[in-house]
Design a protein that fits this description.
CATH superfamily of the largest domain: Periplasmic binding protein-like II
CATH architecture of the largest domain: 3-Layer(aba) Sandwich
Number of domains: 2
Low-confidence stretches: 1-25
Number of strands: 11
Structural class: alpha/beta
CATH class of the largest domain: Alpha Beta
Helix content: 40-55%
Radius of gyration: 20 Å
Length: 343
């Protein structure tokens, strides 16, 4: 089951600043973005929409959030029901190894984007503090009940990865509970039915601000050694689409890059644009989530081989999946370079 969020960017942009072909009465190019979830790891997408940056490029962008996760989102792209996949690169990398060819053409978030938060009394019992050694933090998951979005989801894989890093067997030493999205996690956490949960901001931030949750690792600042400089959110499309839509791909990259620039140069304006997607988020939660996740976004959309390689290693460690495709064949920076001088 998927939920659709149709965005009319023209209503969000100031007509006076539109310089694209749309301003002259021409039809915008329709682009459907398939996302596995909604959260702050997609900030440049929301900001580009909220500030009218896609519309300035002559693009009419719609976000579709797939409740069944990354595999369902990618399937929509491969099947032609969506234009772009924005999410964890490991999923299209797996598909590429099976002959379903997609290519990464823009990188957004360059650290692990999900968080693991624990009940404050659980962290206190384990004598955890922010400066505790990483292996000690990971080992503290022993005998705990940790909620994840779904079986096989990135949150599930991340909890298993951390458990193994702490010397634990995820099947025997802790209980991983697939529970669904943020509202379910927060409700179970508030009712003390779980000891912790794994999801990205702002859900992780809500637990910290309103219920005193302890953040196990500051992933966005690279505090978890095995996934430091891990490419977590990237933009991918089918190879044949990229080959025949090079101008559109360049426009997409330019809009997202301008959004990332705005996030640092005009933060108040960028944060205000998020109200369309997070209307009930209280100001202290928004600010803390913003401050916590911003360091994980790069200064450009350029893809680094190291970040993709970390996805290869992650798949090998948590799923035993070995990908033979050379890393440098899975991404391109051609569209980043094409728009670099036009920002």
């Amino acid at each position: 089951m998927l939920s659709r969020r149709r965005v009319l960017a023209a209503a969000l942009a100031a007509p006076a600043i539109l310089q694209s072909s749309v301003a002259f009465g021409q039809l915008a190019r329709k682009i459907v973005i398939a996302q596995p979830s909604a959260g702050f790891i997609y900030l440049p997408v929301y900001v580009a929409l909220g500030l009218g940056l896609f519309r300035q490029e002559g693009l009419d962008v719609e976000i579709v959030v797939f409740d069944k996760g990354a595999s369902a989102a990618l399937t929509a792209v491969i099947g032609g029901d969506a234009t772009l996949y924005v999410g964890l690169p490991a999923i299209p990398l797996q598909a590429r190894a099976k002959g379903r060819r997609t290519t990464i053409f823009g990188s957004l978030f360059n650290q692990c984007g999900s968080e693991i938060v624990l009940r404050p009394e659980v962290a206190e019992k384990a004598k955890l503090v922010s400066s505790s050694p990483p292996t000690e933090k990971a080992a503290s998951l022993r005998d705990l009940k940790i909620a994840v979005a779904g079986a096989g989801s990135i949150t599930d894989l991340l909890v298993r990865h951390v458990a193994k890093f702490g010397g634990l067997d995820p099947e025997r030493h802790l209980t991983i509970i697939p529970i669904g999205g943020g509202p379910n996690m927060l409700a179970a956490f508030a009712q003390r039915k779980i000891d912790g949960y794994c999801l990205s901001a702002p859900t992780s931030t809500i637990g910290a601000v309103t219920m005193g949750a302890f953040n196990l690792f500051d992933f966005s600042r690279g505090e978890y050694p095995p996934l430091r400089n891990f490419l977590y959110t990237a933009v991918s499309a089918r190879d044949e689409w990229l080959a025949s839509n090079d101008e559109t791909a360049t426009q997409i990259v330019r809009a997202l890059w301008r959004a990332q620039i705005a996030m640092r140069a005009r933060p108040d304006e960028a944060k205000a644009s998020l109200r369309n997607w997070f209307p009930r988020l209280e100001a202290p939660v928004l600010q803390r989530a913003w401050d916590g996740i911003l360091p994980g976004f790069g200064s450009s959309l350029e893809t680094q081989a190291e970040g993709v390689q970390r996805n290869y290693e992650f798949l090998s460690e948590v799923r035993g999946t070995a990908i033979s495709s050379p890393v440098n064949e899975t991404f391109t920076n051609a569209f980043v370079e094409a728009c670099r001088s036009t920002l």
